[in-house]
Amino acid sequence: MTALAYFNMFPEFTALSDETKNALISQASACLDTSLFCADSGYVIALYAAHMATLTSVRALNGSGAVTSIREGDLSISFGTFKSTSSLGQTSYGNVLLQLMKSAGAGVAMDVI
To answer: Is residue 112 part of a domain?
Structure first.
């Protein structure tokens, strides 16, 4: 599967144009050495693109960390603070990448945007 096909499986990004998705995927591709992961390269790139998109949207909302709770009645959304020195620990997509790196046993250096 392509990175775009994986990215399209993430429901929170359905409103993004294909142009925006492709730009995120291109940026993610330039930042990662996918050979260091024990997963399909398209999936790894899509995860990093989703990680970048999530960081961008969260910071645009309020400059806080990831969503920690959501309530429906009288609508309430709570945000945590950024706790990790690595930006990967700040989103669910980044956490999946961290797990993939650990399972591959790779010591990984990557540019984090």
So the answer is: no
